[in-house]
Amino acid sequence: MLQHWTLNIEGFGKIEKASIEVSPLMIFAGDNNSGKSYVMTLLWGLLNIDHDFFPQEIPTTDTYKSLSKWLCSRTDQNEFILDEVGIKLVTDFFNETLHLQKDDLVRRIFNAEIPISKVYLSFYGSNAPIRVLQKKSLRSKPFRVESNNFIVEVPWILNADKDHVSRYILIQSLCFALILNRASLWYSGAFYLPASRTGFMLTYKALAKRALRQGFQTMGPDDQMGKLTAPVTSFLSELVDLDLDPQNPFYEIASFLEKEILEGKIEKDQSPVPYYFFSPDHIEGQLSLHVTSSLVAELAPIVLFLKSDNKIQTLIIEEPEAHLHLDMQRQMARAIVRLVNAGLPVWITTHSDTMLQQFNNLIKLNNHSQQEELAKQYNYDEVDFLDPAKGKVYQFDVVDRKTLIRSQPLTESGFAIPTFTNSIRKLAKETIDLMENSDDEEDDE
Questions:
Q1: For a Cys-Cys bond, which of 47, 88, 185, 359 suits 190, CB 3.0-4.6 Å?
Q2: Could you tell me which residue ranges the Endonuclease GajA/Old nuclease/RecF-like AAA domain spans (predicted)?
């Protein structure tokens, strides 16, 4: 990912205080009901901020005035790059807006009232410069990504004192480019694949039909559909309006999942509300998802999104190991690493020590002295190697009904997750004790 920053939150539900540094591969592990999905959902909301996030009225704060003045001083240039001063001014304005809008933002993301005392971004950095080009043509695109450089194009009218609106739009565009890694307001910043994907895959058509019957009117307070979070609603909406694109840069990785885990293909018809089905390898015919195994229905949306024509900036997956045998969990970990190496940030919540160990193995293989021999022995390709600098692991622990979030250090063996290690040790000790004191031994005596 081109941008990196740290999300800081305080007084958010049961989370007293936390700092989350985003990375291409980010893993949340820990206790049940500890807030992992809450934080992921909040991150999704930040990455999918739209124009409603910014106040309709042009701000009059000192922070905004300083940024506006800085931009005006450069409008005599055909092109300029955001320097450290400009980056700080844009970040300060974004954080100021985030503070003012935090309650409304959380309400819209979660479709519920959840307290949040503070939320802001810090330690911003970018691997690519952001250039601002001024164009005399009003038909130029407002924003595009080109050769790993962000380029913001704006009409040649910013030097006019009266054009405060155009300047405000530019400032909003800079927030999207600088902080959110978004190509524009109209690009989807992140796709969220929620837990219980099987249930959604088997009911999305009914949900869509119900919405159509009601004319997409606002749901009542007792309507369960009206209680879905924004990322889940977005997920269902995408399922209804999804088109496949063989040119998707991640299509090949979706095919890897179909080959190594599903042993068949996920396909769709051309009806207005698409019908998804499974075509098993070596068997003629198509199967409706409701008669397939839970593995197929659970994995189907992951495959579909990676095959779709959506411009995915970040992929968030809750419990990607769900319904997968241990061997299949290892293949899923490989697919996630391949996505990260292909340039797609992937953030997951997990309870799988198997997946974590597979990530660790791919980290160790990355710089192993016998990399070529081991890769050949275990059928790995270069795209499976994981650079440890691309990964971050956070453990969520519930202590006295409050959640503590800790970044886990990288050791010689990879990332260690105490919550997994402790559980495995307890189970091993219990197993050994039972074996050493078994009834069979007493009978032998």
A1: 47
A2: 7-123, 269-355
Q: How many domains does the chain have?
A: 3
349 and 406 belong to one structural domain = yes
Is 62 found in the same domain as 42?
no
C-alpha dihedral (31, 35, 40, 44), degrees to nearest 10: 160
Report pLDDT digits (tens) over 138-194: 455 544 444 355 666 665 555 544 578 878 888 888 888 777 765 444 456 799 999
Residue 400, Ramachandran bin (φ over 0: left; ψ between -120 and 50: alpha; else beta): left
| Nearest-angstrom CA–CA distance, 338 and 386 | 9
Q: Are residues 66 and 43 in the same domain?
A: no
Q: What is the pTM of this model?
A: 0.88
Q: What tokens were used for 254? A: 């979706």
Predicted confidence (pLDDT) per residue in 346-394, tens digit: 999 999 989 999 999 999 999 899 999 999 999 999 999 999 999 999 9
Distances from the Cα of 52 to the Cαs of 143, 161, 181, 439, in angstroms? 19, 25, 18, 68
Cα gap 204→211, rounded to integer Å: 11
